[in-house]
Structure formats: structure tokens, C-alpha cells
């Protein structure tokens, strides 16, 4: 027996003095309301309503139980409201600062169709991990080596001019090589990629092929790095999607394979699993994992 449904029907029928009106207030057919209250009376062993007259009236037993029944129904309604608010409360998610506004908006819209409401907090890698530890966010897309994460994005080099080669090698940037300007070309690493599995690997290749230390540098912001690339012949370490957004020509790196990896960290394990499994494809598209190795952005 649906005890809560029966008590709700009893309260509404009592207040309206009619099975027809009480059932309508409960949003159930009259026959259902009658069956529920009859079942409740059998369960309690006493009659709650006097049906002998045209208008339904309470028995003495029914009058005694009505106040408690009203409190029970009000409490149930309040709990249903709280549950709905909890279901719709935004899950604050720390995301990479490289995610565009449009990509995040699309992700939020797609998540909403799955009853997941997201509130984004863009931040660099180290800060995202700290935000989870301090519980300032419920979950974060954390940086990991590509092979260890739930998502991975390949990185390459992009410049303002279209290179003739389909693959770029760091050794071709050595100072003094024929055809290069007096100013050595630089590779800019943006803050999102200032992590050991990207930065340190590039530094090792830089040293191995004889580039100057300053030729592979970490930029303060993506804007600073992009401005240098657009104004000079420098190169930006980035994903194909970022290159397209910035109007740059992207090529893979021949000397070393580097990429971004992402996973979910959360203070509560259920939040991490919820994001990782229910939004896997949507987050992948936002991060750019569905991008192919491409030619120049047009």
C-alpha cells in the first residue's frame, strides 16, 4: 500500500468534504482515492471518514489523526521540493582556461539534457587541483599524462604562416640555420601546458637538438603567447582546435609526441564518476579530443 499517497488522499478529501474534489486536488481518479482511503482504514483498523451522508465527514478517529496526517503530507512535499532543488543545483566544475565560451556553453546545454547542471570555473592546472582539495569546487578536470587520463588531446606547433613541411622538427629552429632570421624563433608554451609531462619533455628535446634555452618558453597567458605568434614567426604549442580558433596553421611535432591528458577529481567520489561517465563524450568535444590532425586553419 502507498501509505503516503493514502494519507495525501485522506487529507484532501477531508478538507474538501468530497471524494470528487479531494481526488482532483490529489490529481488521481475518484475511484483511486476511495480505494486508497479504504485500504488505509483497513490498515489502521478504524474508519476515518463517515460516508453515510452526501457530504463526507470525519469520524472522531479521523479528526484525531488529521493534524498528524497534514504534517506528514507537508513534510513529504517539502522533501520533494528539496530533492528537486538538490537535483538542479549546479555542480561547480573547474575547467581548463583554454576551453572557449562557446564550447563551455554547448557542454552546459548538453549536460542539462542529462539532468546535470554545471557551473564552470576556468583555472590553470595546479589551481584546478587545489580548488578540489579546498572544496571550492565539487569537481575538476585535472591535468594528467595523456595515457593516464580519461581524455587526451594531441599538441603540435602553430604559426601565422603556413609551413611547407607537413611535420615540424624542433632542430629546424636552431639559430644560424640557413633561411632563418637573425632573431631565433621561439616556441611558446601556454599556461595549460606548463606541466611536467609536456614542459619537461619539450625542454629535453630543446637541449638535445641544440636550441637556446629561451627558444622554448612558458608564456604568462595564452593571450601573450598568441600575440607573439601573430606578430612574429614564433610558434605556439597548442591543439588543432586552438589553432583554428586563432587563425593559425597547425602541424604535428616530429621530434617528440606531447599531449594533454585530463581526468576528473572530486571531493566526493560520486561526483567524479557522474561527470566521467555521463558526460564523457560531451567533455571530450569541449576539450577538442575529436579533432583530427589537420592542415592550416583557414
TrEMBL record:
Q: Where is the HTH lysR-type domain?
A: 1-59
- Keyword check for Transcription regulation: yes
By its UniProt entry, which PROSITE patterns does this protein fall under?
Answer: HTH_LYSR
Which family does the entry's similarity section mention?
Belongs to the LysR transcriptional regulatory family.
Q: Which Pfam families match?
A: HTH_1
Q: Which UniProt keywords apply?
A: DNA-binding, Transcription, Transcription regulation
Protein name stated in the entry? LysR family transcriptional regulator
Q: Which top-level group of life is the source organism from? A: Bacteria
Q: Which InterPro entries match?
A: LysR_HTH_N (IPR000847), WH-like_DNA-bd_sf (IPR036388), WH_DNA-bd_sf (IPR036390)
Amino acid at each position: 500500500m502507498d501509505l503516503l499517497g493514502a494519507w495525501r488522499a485522506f487529507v484532501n478529501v477531508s478538507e474538501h468534504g468530497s471524494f470528487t474534489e479531494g481526488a482532483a486536488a490529489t490529481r488521481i481518479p475518484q475511484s483511486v482515492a476511495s480505494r486508497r482511503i479504504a485500504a488505509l482504514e483497513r490498515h489502521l483498523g478504524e474508519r476515518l471518514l463517515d460516508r453515510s451522508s452526501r457530504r463526507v465527514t470525519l469520524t472522531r478517529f479521523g479528526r484525531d489523526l488529521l493534524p498528524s496526517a497534514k504534517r506528514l503530507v507537508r513534510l513529504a512535499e517539502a522533501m520533494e521540493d528539496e530533492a528537486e532543488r538538490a537535483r538542479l543545483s549546479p555542480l561547480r566544475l573547474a575547467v581548463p582556461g583554454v576551453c572557449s565560451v562557446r564550447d563551455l556553453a554547448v557542454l552546459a546545454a548538453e549536460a542539462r539534457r542529462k539532468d546535470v547542471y554545471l557551473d564552470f570555473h576556468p583555472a590553470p592546472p595546479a589551481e584546478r587541483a587545489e580548488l578540489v582539495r579546498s572544496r571550492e569546487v565539487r569537481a575538476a578536470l585535472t591535468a594528467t599524462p595523456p595515457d593516464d587520463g580519461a581524455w587526451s588531446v594531441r599538441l603540435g606547433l602553430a604559426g601565422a604562416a603556413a609551413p611547407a613541411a607537413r611535420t615540424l622538427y624542433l632542430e629546424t629552429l636552431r639559430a644560424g640555420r640557413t633561411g632563418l632570421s637573425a632573431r631565433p624563433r621561439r616556441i611558446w608554451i601556454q599556461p595549460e601546458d606548463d606541466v611536467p609531462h609536456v614542459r619537461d619533455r619539450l625542454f629535453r628535446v630543446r637541449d638535445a637538438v641544440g636550441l637556446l634555452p629561451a627558444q622554448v618558453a612558458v608564456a604568462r597567458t595564452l593571450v601573450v603567447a598568441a600575440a607573439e605568434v601573430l606578430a612574429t614567426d614564433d610558434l605556439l604549442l597548442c591543439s588543432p582546435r586552438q589553432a583554428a580558433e586563432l587563425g593559425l596553421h597547425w602541424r604535428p611535432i616530429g621530434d617528440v609526441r606531447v599531449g594533454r591528458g585530463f581526468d576528473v577529481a572530486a571531493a566526493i567520489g560520486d561526483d567524479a564518476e557522474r561527470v566521467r561517465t555521463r558526460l564523457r563524450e560531451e567533455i571530450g568535444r569541449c576539450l577538442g579530443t575529436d579533432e583530427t590532425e589537420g592542415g592550416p586553419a583557414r
